[in-house]
Each structure stands twice: as structure tokens, then as C-alpha cells.
Amino acid sequence: MICCGFMWKSGGEDLQGFYPVREECVADVPRTRFKSRAGKTLSARKWHAAFTGDGHLDMERVLRRIQRGGIHPSIKGEVWEFLLGAYDPDSTFEERNKLRNHRREQYYAWKEECKNMVPLVGSGKFVTMAVVAEDGQPLEESSVDNQEWVVKTAITDKRVLQWMLVLSQIGLDVVRTDRYLCFYESESNQARLWDILSIYTWLNPDIGYVQGMNDICSPMIILLEDEADAFWCFERAMRRLRENFRTTATSMGVQTQLGMLSQVIKTVDPRLHQHLEDLDGGEYLFAIRMLMVLFRREFSFLDALYLWENFVSADVGYGIQSKQVCIIRRTTEHEQLLRTGSEVT
After folding, report:
1. Residue 315 neighbours by CB under 8 Å, 6+ apart
2. What is the C-alpha to C-alpha distance for residues 128 and 176, in angstroms, rounded to an integer?
3. Residue 219 in contact with residue 302, Cβ under 8 Å?
4. I need a surface site. Which of 85, 112, 118, 178 has the fewest CB within 10 A?
5. Could you tell me the domains of the chain?
């Protein structure tokens, strides 16, 4: 397997313009180091050349290119649909168009179902205040803050009530998601993120909504113009990551990964492990967020996507379920490069 080479050297195309940062936030956001490089980064030309006449994709060829230099932002969305397994590389253009149309119809049917329960779904607005009491009774005082919509009758269906109770938490997290990006200055873009998370939560009552899902979903909203396409990419990512968000009274979803991280650090850097033990950090609880959302908040938006692309392309099933040793190794390389500015080969 080709090792990832992080493209931090001077030169290359500056890609920050694809995901502009709000001027007042520039000083507080990690500087983007990734740059596109001719002959290494998967370009639009190389991407289109990887398809046969009827649409079959040479996935092995694409993966090699991604591992060498990531994906150019101009095509990230369509490439990610294959990386996450939304489409089979062996399918044809016609087959994918049929599947895409079917999925869009299905998504908008689910959206209409949710809208019938909460009219704000699909309205371009979203809630940040509770819409119903925990016992299912209306909360009229929240109507102004919730875009003049309020539950008018008691909710007796347990599944509906469980869903409605979490809508405000989703809204609060949406407001905090990637708020340094100009993209989310638009309330309609925030509402699209809220819609997808709300619909996913409705369809998956066993796991519901957990903080951090917003960080996984946000790139899909930004990379894919059609909301339904973004939903299906998020759904494919969550198939692999959902156990990270499953928490009980006695265990955390990422507990296994934390244990593995502890063992790896103990092996490769015993002094660091002992230092953390001395600081009562031997359980590596500080890494929960890193593992749960795959380092989304540790790096700039573009650098985090590049890191994800290496995780994904290294996985045999093209999914986002990366092997934890690979994650730790590649993240160590990432941090080393941020310090030295060198390139790993």
C-alpha cells in the first residue's frame, strides 16, 4: 500500500478559497497546510479519465492517486460518494442515475413525513429552544424563539416525543458547527444541516442524536449541493461510525479505541505513556473527541478532509471505518509535518 504523503511543501495550488473563513475568525483557525500538487492530487481530469465509456470506475487507480495527494476540492463531493460506498464502482452511469433518483425520492418522502410532525423541517429555519416538555405537554413560551412554531397538543407517541425532545439540541449544535466558515453564515445552510440530522435521528431511534454527529455531517452538506445526496453520504458514513456514538451507563462507544490507543502509545512511546499515567491521563479520555469525530476539530477544514481521505482510501471497503493503528500512525505523521514542514513518503 502506498503511504500517504502530506503535501505541506511550499508551492502548489492554494485551496483555501474553496472553503473561505470568516474574516473575524482567521486568527483563531488552524492554518491550512494542504496544497494540491500536479501529478499527485486527484484532479478533475484524472478522475474523469478513470471511468469507462459506460461509467465503470477504476477504483484501484483512484485510490492510489488519493493516497499520494488527496482529492482536489472541485471534485471532492462526487469522489466521496464512491469512497463512502454510496455508489458501486462497477455500476454504470445509467444505473447510478436510477439509484440517485430513487434515493432522492426516498429522502424527500422522509422529509415530508418529518415536516408533517414539525413544520419547520424543510422551511429554511430550525429550532434552538425546546418545542415540547418532557412529559409531552406544549411549551407555548418557546414559540417566538422557535420561529413562531409551537406544539399545540400533547404528544403521546413515545417515538415522536423522543424525537421532538432532541430537535433543540441538534439546533444548538448546528449553530456551533464550523461556524468559522463563510458557508454557515447562511441560515439556510445551517437549516439544511439541521434537516439532515433531524431526519436521520427520526429514522434511527435506537441511537438517536449524539453531539459530534454534526461534525461528521457538515462536510457532506458543504461538498454536495443536493441535500438528499448529502444525507445518503452521511448515512453511509454513520453505518461505520455509529458505534462510536453509542453510549450506555457503563460504557462509551469509543472505549475500545481508547484502549487500543493506550496500548499503541505504550508500545511506541513508553515515556509518553508513563508521563500520561503520572498525570492521571492513562485512560486517554482526552482523546474521546478526536476518535469520535475523526479529528475534525483538531485541524482546519481542508486538512481534516485530506486526513479523512487517507483514512478512507486505506480501508479495503472504501468506507470510513479506518483501522485505529492507521489512524494513530497517520495522525502522528500529520502532527510531525505541522512542526517540521517536511513531506512523508
Report:
1. 321, 322, 323
2. 11
3. no
4. 112
5. 36-91 (no CATH), 92-240 (1.10.8.270), 250-344 (no CATH)
* Residues near 176 by beta carbon (within 8 Å), at least 6 away in sequence: 214
Q: Report d(CA 261, CA 284) in Å as an integer.
A: 8
CA distance 99 to 87: 9
In angstroms, the CA 254 to CA 261 distance is 10
The secondary structure of residue 13, as a DSSP letter, is E
Asked if 253 and 292 count as a contact pair (C-beta separation under 8 A), the reply is: yes
Q: What percent of the chain has pLDDT over 70?
A: 83
Nearest to 81 by CA among 298, 229, 295: 229
Cα–Cα distance for residue pair 208/200, rounded to 1 Å: 8
Residue 168: closest CA among 133, 122, 130, 115: 130
95-133 confidence digits (pLDDT tens): 999 999 999 999 999 999 999 999 999 999 999 988 888
- Closest by alpha carbon to 301, among 43, 26, 44, 78? 26
